[in-house]
Amino acid sequence: MKFSYALSGLLSAVAVLALPAPDLTSPDLLKRTPPGIPSPSSARRLLSGLKKATPIDDGTYDRDLFPHWGSIEGNCNAREYVLRRDGTGVEVGNNCYPTAGSWTSPYDGARHVDPPDVDIDHMVPLKNAWISGASAWTTGRRRAFANDVDSPQLWAVTGSVNRSKGDRSPDEWTPPLRSFHCTYAASWIAVKDKYALSASSAEVDALNAMLDTC
Known about the structure:
The chain is an alpha+beta fold. It has helices spanning 2-18, 27-30, 40-49, 78-86, 126-130, 139-146, 159-165, 181-194, 201-211, and strands at residues 71-73, 76-77, 88-92, 98-104, 111-112, 118-122, 154-158. It has one domain (21-211). The chain has a 3-stranded antiparallel sheet with strand order 3-4-5, covered by helices on one side. Pfam families: GmrSD_C.
């Protein structure tokens, strides 16, 4: 029995690894991605305008300082809204939680049919925002940042990959799927520009390198 479970798990892992990389230019996928992703040229222009500064981590960050998963539309909170937006064939119950659907994670190309396997990633992590200027914000602005569905800030991705990313910036972590690096960099830059957050020198260098893949 244990061998059977182990074999089943191995076959599932192989199936995920065998999935082809998603076509990030397909009209269907583009309809299911966050709004506001700039073109590579616009991203470079925005990047050049970001304030360059060394992040200040004084140990005061707390995730609860960014009230998240607030109500967005009807019974849908921000997490449920993104699951519905970014999935295929998504059906939801009265509480807006998905009862059916599939999700392709742009970070690694893996496809999921079980909502708990999907995390909603903050493109610019909450702690990175805190040490890049958000420590001076009001709670209302931090709430808006943590629940922003009008910019490329929230993404439905593989849970384990999201946990691997943690609160790291692009000089410390990049998505496993190299074909997504261009979009990832453009999205990160767009969010930092929208919220006037600073970027470190290493972060800027990494973002420029990622834009070189466009």
